[in-house]
Amino acid sequence: MKSITIHGMDDELDQLIRKKAAEEQKSLNKTIKGLLEEALGVRPSKDHREEFSDLFGTWSTADRQQFEQATEDLRRVDPEDWK
């Protein structure tokens, strides 16, 4: 394994990396490696949709089934409508 030293990192970037590492309960090394992997496309970035669920809401399986049943007729095409 190779080691890399980063010189001249500004305080703001240092604090952001440290904050991210603390939030994810990971070491600085693992956090930086993960950020590099995402940025370089080695590992796909995380799906952040769940972070917005409180703003948009989510449907349970029962909710989805109820919606599907209520809108079932809307998926039927009557050929007479197209004459």
Can you offer a commentary on this structure?
The chain has 83 residues and is an all-alpha fold. It has one domain (11-75). Helix content is 48%, strand content 0%. The chain contains 4 helices and no strands. It has helices at 11-24, 28-39, 53-56, 61-70. Helix 1 packs across helix 2. The termini are far apart. The mean pLDDT is 90.
In short:
The chain has helices at residues 11-24, 28-39, 53-56, 61-70. With 83 residues, the protein is an all-alpha fold.
Would you spell out the secondary-structure blueprint of this structure?
Elements: H1 11-24, H2 28-39, H3 53-56, H4 61-70
- Total beta strand runs: 0
Q: Can you tell me the overall shape?
A: elongated
Largest sheet: none
Quaternary organisation: single chain
Low-confidence stretches: none
- Spatial gap, N to C terminus: 70 Å
Strand percent estimate = under 5%
Helix content: 40-55%
Query: Helix/strand-derived class?
Result: mainly alpha
H and E string: HHHH
Question: What is the average of the pLDDT values?
Answer: 90
What is the domain tally?
1
Radius of gyration: 24 Å
